[in-house]
Every structure is written in structure tokens, then in C-alpha cells.
Amino acid sequence: MTASEEALGIAVGHQQLLSASWLLRLAQESGYDLPQISLSVEPFIIGRPDGFHIDVTMTDDAPWIAATASSLGEHTRIDELVKQSGDRTAEGDFGGLVWYSTTLVGQQSLTLDARFMTRLQEILGSQVRIEGWRRLGSHVLLNFREELRSSHPAGA
Predict the structure, then answer these.
(1) pTM, 2 dp
(2) CA distance linking residue 83 with residue 62, whole number of Å
(3) Per-residue pLDDT reduced to its tens digit, 33-49
(4) Total structural domains in the chain?
(5) Of the candidates 47, 51, 49, which has an alpha carbon nearest to the alpha carbon of residue 20?
(6) Residue 16: φ, ψ to 5°
(7) Tell me, what CATH number does 66's domain have?
(8) Would you give the DSSP letter of residue 108?
(9) What angle do CA 84, 48, 15 make, to 5 degrees?
(10) Which of 38, 60, 94, 140 is surrounded by the most beta carbons within 10 Å?
(11) Is the peptide bond before 63 cis (omega within 30 degrees of 0)?
(12) Whether 48 contacts 110, CB under 8 Å
């Protein structure tokens, strides 16, 4: 495990993807029109291939990415954004917490046959705990962990 992996607790590959995601966000916040992204095949392409775009390649150390703008006049600004992206990644900044919830609604079956009960037992008996860092799409990196919570509200 490298020093950066130990410091952040995530693999270099995830640090690279996080830094690339920060570059995309910071570039958009800086006013760059980047309607297309490709963060699945290296080099990553942020922006339209036939218009302004940023080619992103991975590096093993901070800032974990190198970027080249398609417009020569934008190289200095993009280099600054790459540095900022690496700084945020080194700080372990994942962009804040986002909580999603959903309600699942189903109809109750009136008949419970043997096949259903067998399948239900199989599902309940084969549950897998998910722990650690997992990527869910090109923009979502999740850290799954189990914690015991107090059953009493704070201050009670």
C-alpha cells in the first residue's frame, strides 16, 4: 500500500478517479462548457471531442492526474484546476455528503407456495455484507461501513 493509499484509505485508482471528478466539477464551476464526459476509458475526455475538451491521464502520485486542454490558451488555467483537484483529493474531500432514500412499494401476495418460500429462504441465507470503498458509476464513490448506533437520542 502506498503512502497516499494509507493516508486516505482508498486505492490509487480511486484517488485518480476522484481527482478527475474534481477536475470536471471545478472546470464546470469555472465556466467551461463541458457537456460530455468519458471517465471510463483512459485517457478520459472531458468535453466534446470536436470542440473544447480536456484529455486526462492517470499518474501514480498527487495530483493523480495530468490534463491537456485542446486550446493552447487554456493550459495554464487547466493546470491550476488540476492542482486544486489534487489538493482536494489529498484532503480526502469527497464533495460533501449526499443522502438518497427511496420507498419500495409492493403488493402482498395472498398465496405463499413452496417455491416462493424456498426462494425467500435462499435470499435471506445468502446475504453478503459490503464493506469498504465501492464505485457506483462514474460519479459516485461510496464507503460502506457498519456502525452500532445508540438507541437513545443524544442528550436523553
Answers:
(1) 0.61
(2) 8
(3) 999 888 777 889 999 98
(4) 1
(5) 47
(6) -65, -45
(7) 3.30.310
(8) P
(9) 35
(10) 94
(11) yes
(12) no
